[in-house]
């Protein structure tokens, strides 16, 4: 169990979690400083160092100047692959998107909508959470490759060739 945080440390930690949930990556030192009206980046760095020492965050192995939430701490996070369309038969991973692990099954990934589906209230720029292993049933929403973009539509039959998987969630930022 991680060491208890002071009120100010807990507020900084909650802010970091909020930004990770919202943006998919941790805030910068300057963003944290602005949120708490802290002028000195060394003060912000000291909070980050304390959170790391107490076991709430850790330095990212992938990027030297960033950090991530420690699994098993508050909310367990996983980093889903972000997939982009290349052509009718290929997609590529272009990054990672942090999400609470309780919301997604193993093997799920995310994709940005390139062509909206107004009949399903899915808009360009939305982020689809896709489970490629889920069984597809008529009437459910699926992600598909469509003329150079990823979109969603209602699943009709097993003969669907462009299905990427079942849409199990959607993220939209306002």
Description:
The chain is an alpha+beta fold and 174 residues long. The model has no long low-confidence stretch (mean pLDDT 84). The chain has 3 helices and 9 strands. The strands form 2 sheets. The protein has a 7-stranded mixed β-sheet with strand order 4-3-5-6-9-7-8, covered by helices on one side. The protein has 2 domains: 63 residues, Arc Repressor Mutant, subunit A, CATH 1.10.10; 95 residues, Ribbon (Umud Fragment, subunit A). A hairpin with a 2-residue loop joins strand 7 and strand 8.
The CATH superfamily name of the largest domain is Umud Fragment, subunit A
Structural class: alpha+beta
Shape from CA axes?
elongated
CATH architecture of the largest domain: Ribbon
In percent, how much strand structure appears in the residues? 25-35%
Number of strands: 9
Number of helices: 3
Query: Strand-and-helix sequence, N→C?
Result: HHHEEEEEEEEE
Q: State the helical fraction.
A: 10-25%
